[in-house]
Design goal:
This protein has helices at 25-40, 69-80, 83-88, 99-115, 149-161, 179-188, 229-246; strands spanning 12-19, 45-52, 59-66, 92-97, 122-127, 130-136, 169-175, 192-197, 222-223. The protein is an alpha+beta fold. The radius of gyration is 21 Å and the shape is globular. The mean pLDDT is 93. The protein binds zinc ion.
C-alpha cells in the first residue's frame, strides 16, 4: 500500500453527548476518571474532554481529537475492552465525526483500487453518522466504464437502502468527481459532497466544469470544504509517477 507521509494528516474529531441514566450516574462517574487518564496517555490523543453538561448532570459533553483515523481506531479498540467500555457499552451516545474521519476511510478504499492496478480513487456515503455505501475505482477489473468509486458507492448505498434516491446523505470521495459521477449524484439526490483533491482535467464540480451549479437542475448538491487534499492528491500522483517509471501509463485521464 502506497500511503502518503504523515505530514499532511489532519486530526479526527469526535463530538457529542453521552446520556447516562440517573440511576447509574455515580457508577459511570467512577469509571470516567480512569478512562480520561488512560486515553490522554495514548500516543495519538490530542484532546480528550468529557464533562457533565451544565443543564443536566446526566448528559456529558464529549470532545475528542486524535492525530488521524489509525489513532482513533486504536483508541476505539482499546475502549471496547476497557472497564469504561464494558461499563458503559449500553449507554446512549450521540456522536458526530469530522469529515476527516470519513475521508481517511475513502483513502483506505482508494488503496484497494490501487492494489488492483486501478487509478486509486475511493468513495463512501454516510447517513446520520453511518456508512451506508462504499466503493473504489474498478472500471478495468470490472470491465465497466461506469465503475467509478462514486458510482460503486452509490450502487452499494441504494441497494442497502432499497431506494434509488439517497436523500440526507453525504458522499465523500478522494478526488473531484467527473461529469458522469456528478450527474449520478444529482439523480440520487445526494445532499452534500466532500472531496479531497481537485481534478484539473476532468473534474466536473469546479475544475473543468461546474455541473452541480447548472441552472436547469432541480436538485442542488452542497459542496463542503475539502479535507485531506494533500494526501488524496499525493496518492494519485504517486500512482501515475510509478506507472510512468514502469512505462505502463496509458494515454488517458484519471477516472
Ligand atoms: Zn467518475
Amino acid at each position: 500500500m502506497n500511503l502518503p507521509d504523515k505530514q499532511s494528516s489532519e486530526p479526527v474529531v469526535l463530538q457529542g453527548q453521552i446520556i447516562v441514566p440517573a440511576s447509574r450516574l455515580s457508577a459511570v462517574q467512577e469509571l470516567l476518571e480512569a478512562h480520561i487518564e488512560l486515553t490522554r496517555k495514548e500516543a495519538g490523543c490530542l484532546v480528550f474532554e468529557v464533562n457533565p453538561g451544565e443543564a443536566d448532570a446526566c448528559v456529558f459533553d464529549v470532545y475528542e481529537e486524535f492525530t488521524d483515523k489509525a489513532a482513533f481506531d486504536t483508541h476505539q479498540k482499546r475502549v471496547q475492552h476497557s472497564e469504561w467500555g464494558r461499563g458503559t457499552g449500553d449507554v446512549v451516545r450521540n456522536y458526530q465525526l469530522s469529515d476527516s474521519y470519513y475521508m481517511y476511510r475513502a483513502l483506505e478504499l482508494a488503496a484497494e483500487a490501487e492494489a488492483l492496478g486501478e487509478v486509486p480513487v475511493g468513495a463512501l456515503i454516510v447517513r446520520a453518522g453511518e456508512i451506508i455505501g462504499e466503493g473504489y475505482n474498478q472500471p478495468i477489473s470490472q470491465a465497466d466504464p461506469s465503475a467509478h468509486a462514486e458510482i460503486n458507492a452509490m450502487r452499494h448505498a441504494a441497494s442497502k437502502m432499497q431506494n434509488y434516491r439517497l436523500p440526507g446523505t453525504t458522499l465523500y470521495c478522494t478526488i473531484e468527481p467527473c461529469a458522469m459521477c456528478a450527474g449520478a449524484m444529482v439523480h440520487a439526490r445526494i445532499e452534500r459532497l466532500v472531496y479531497g483533491a481537485p481534478e484539473p482535467r476532468a473534474g466536473a464540480v469546479e475544475s473543468a466544469m461546474a455541473l452541480l451549479n447548472a441552472p436547469h437542475l432541480n436538485h442542488r448538491v452542497q459542496v463542503g470544504q475539502s479535507v485531506l487534499q494533500a494526501q488524496c492528491a499525493q496518492l494519485i500522483s504517486q500512482f501515475f509517477r510509478h506507472k510512468r517509471s514502469q512505462g505502463t501509463l496509458e494515454d488517458r485521464v484519471p477516472d
